[in-house]
Specification:
Chain lengths: ~220, ~210
């Protein structure tokens, strides 16, 4: 029995953020414990004791229980800083580490709020028996386009978002963008050459390829 | 060379950084960005933050934006000055990371929308949307129920010391305390005690003095 347990699902965006990070840090010994969202397992006391906000994923490492995917990835990146990819620029200088923090916040507060409603309406709403709300999609596509324009300019100056190295600032974008690429809105990425090249680079790494094999949302 | 904080007196994100600067007892220069005249969309400012939002920070040749990246940078870089706002190791560091994400993804999205309705709209002479206020208050109540449980276990969100996880709440909470939303904090005993404690910190008092000067 592995000491490290991830509570979540293999197709969940936030769970796969954590799984990708584990594989990047060459931490392959962990157990993925499924949480039955359709049975509302995530809203019931045993799971709520792991995440009082009732959302996946949660992580258990011995007697430590964590939630919020981006807190979990940062914990993993710190704990295993001497293994695998240097996701927080421990080997870099103060300035590099600070810029990683900036672009991690950009993903959290600029990119994610625009892309998340698009993915929700397209993939999740139908599973809940609702028709996707096109007005929500359209409003967020416009917002998202503006964010991507800034990314296009940024990636004209640097190979990755925080500089010359792949870090958590890039990794955090993987799951939602992967699903976007399965929709007609993939053109938003494909029409911007620098963003497209960055996406192709970060999504083809072995850690994410391994995880994305199981990201089949609503597909048979 | 003195740290420069580029921001606006009515921007909650700016005050997240101002609070951190005061907690760390750092010398700094406040550079007002005149948002009414569109200064934040001007090339000079976009060079500091391509998203055209306040705040931005300059520390020597380091230029940063996103308030929570700036506060973390200050906490790590000046760890030996002023209040230690972070835990650097182990379980405590992990808990801190969790509760910083909670502020960012559970508290702020709802609390900011409520502040927009109850504070900013009033400032700009607009009418609050009663349905939106109701919706956001209901959501914030649920978030604060979780905070009540957490704060019954420890004095501050991430443990027994004041950290960035608490500090990040100050600006929006300060605004909401001047509105009908204050009741949401007051009716939960541990949340109430915690909010009163952190809003009374000398560094926060110094920060809002700057707001009043403007």
């Amino acid at each position: 029995m592995a000491a490290l347990k991830v509570y979540g699902l293999p197709m969940s965006t936030c769970t796969t953020r954590v799984l990708t990070c584990l594989h990047e840090k060459q931490v392959d010994e962990f157990e993925l414990v499924p949480v039955d969202l359709f049975a509302s397992e995530h809203k019931q006391p045993p799971f709520l004791s792991k995440n009082p906000f009732g959302q996946i994923p949660a992580l258990q490492d011995g007697d430590l229980t964590l939630f919020e995917s981006r807190a979990i990835t940062q914990y993993i990146a710190e704990k295993y800083k001497d293994k695998g990819t240097d996701l927080l620029r421990h080997q870099g200088d103060l300035k590099e580490a600070a810029i990683v923090k900036v672009w991690m916040e950009v993903e959290s507060h600029r990119y994610n709020p625009a892309i998340q409603p698009i993915i929700y309406q397209f993939f999740v709403a139908p599973l809940c028996g609702t028709t996707p709300d096109q007005s929500i999609i359209d409003a967020n596509v416009e917002k998202f386009g503006k964010v991507l324009d800034i990314y296009e300019e940024r990636l004209g100056n640097t190979k990755y978002l925080a500089g010359d190295y792949y870090t958590l600032a890039d990794l955090h974008h993987l799951p939602y963008t992967y699903y976007l690429m399965k929709t007609p809105y993939a053109t938003l990425i494909e029409s911007r050459p620098k963003v497209k090249a960055w996406w192709e680079g970060i999504s083809s790494g072995p850690a994410f390829v391994k995880v994305s094999e199981h990201m089949k949302f609503g597909e048979n | 060379m003195v740290i420069k904080v580029h921001g606006s007196p009515i921007s909650t994100a700016t005050f997240r950084v101002v609070a951190a600067v005061h907690e760390k007892e750092l010398e700094y220069e406040f550079v007002p960005v005149d948002m009414k005249s569109g200064a934040h969309k001007h090339p000079d400012f976009l060079a500091l933050n391509p998203f055209g939002q306040v705040p931005a920070l300059e520390d020597g040749d380091i230029k940063l934006f996103e308030s929570r990246a700036i506060t973390k940078y200050l906490a790590y870089t000046y760890e030996n000055k002023g209040t230690p706002l972070i835990y650097k190791e182990g379980k405590q560091m992990a808990e801190l990371a969790v509760w910083m994400e909670v502020e960012a993804h559970q508290f702020d999205p709802v609390a900011s929308k409520l502040a927009w309705e109850l504070v900013y709209k009033k400032m700009f002479g607009m009418e609050a949307d009663a349905a939106a206020v109701q919706e956001h208050e209901t959501k914030l109540a649920k978030v604060l129920d979780v905070y009540e449980a957490q704060l019954s276990k420890c004095k501050y969100l991430a443990g027994d010391s004041f950290t960035l996880a608490d500090l990040h709440h100050l600006p929006v909470m300060h605004y909401l305390m001047g509105t009908q939303a204050k009741k949401l904090f007051d009716e939960r005993p541990h949340v109430s005690a915690w909010s009163k404690d952190i809003l009374a910190r000398p560094a926060w008092e110094k920060s809002i003095a700057l707001q009043k000067q403007a």
